Amino acid sequence: MSAHRARISAVRERLREQGLGALVVTQTANVRYLTGYVGSNGTAVVGLEGAVLLTDSRYALSAREQVEAAEVLIGSRDLLGDIATAAVARAGEGPIAIEADAVTVDWHERFCSRIDGHPVRPVTGLVQELRLIKDTDEIGTMRRAAAVADRALARVVGRGLVGRSERAVAFEIYRAVLEEGGEDLSFPTIVAAGPRGARPHAIPGDEPIPPDTLVVIDMGAIVDGYCSDMTRTYATGPLPERLREIYTLCHDAQRAALAATRPGIACADLDAVARDAIEAGGYGGHFGHGLGHGGGLEIHEAPGGRPGDRRVLAAGMAITIEPGIYLEGVAGVRIEDLVIVTEDGCEMISTSPKDLTVVD
Global pTM? Predict the structure, then answer.
């Protein structure tokens, strides 16, 4: 059985467990996960009585090439009406589930007006829960995406940083990702030097990167739809003692968290490993975000890595480990790796060095 057929079969089993007749899948990543369809306009309907991918004529050829586990239907100008008809036909007597976190109120109202009173039930996370555990092919693709990012970053950093603008470095990373085999960036690259590095999601600016400070570079590549995510922080010359101190502390906190990443640990407890180390080093008030997030077809997906998150890790999950220390008006440091949880620990899929490196 192909991966897509197995995934559709797993959705059907969940429909039976929850007393549902069909699921209308509108979230783009979920559609791709279940059917293999890649396009800007596509909806999957998985029912107890069949599965179908609906799109428009622009994608007729590509959809038929990509989708083998579901029937492909090319809709009319009233594509929503076609989706409703397909859902009713495949739901039998059971309610039709819709992805509550992926449709608008307007879509919901128009959809309900087309199904002649058939019961509709909003659901969340039905497909996302299946996506939590990556299969062998998914993990292999994520390794390839991480390797693209590693090569691209090495190329760009090898040309130096001082005197170049953050924006220029970010643009060159984009170009290098494409040239190294990536289909796109996982997200807009963050390049933040000196005081701007204290902004975890800084937008690259036009000022020259100065010497003798820290530069945070957060980047990722997409390969076959799957994202990588990695952050490295570089020195641009001799550093003040305080900046060397926060780099070493952040690095130690990340190593401790990586050593603790394994099946059975709750996300909140994993976060606490790094957070406690940073607090013990005297910088507890300077690590505001969570330790990490899941990744895969989306750059941010389950599991999370925040205080209070009691989800337990399991083998096959992908999660970032990214502690940071941010000193307002001074500088910041973040070190991040996307890891795959294994049976007895985790596999770090990025290989870029993490020892403090001077790049002038």
Answer: 0.95
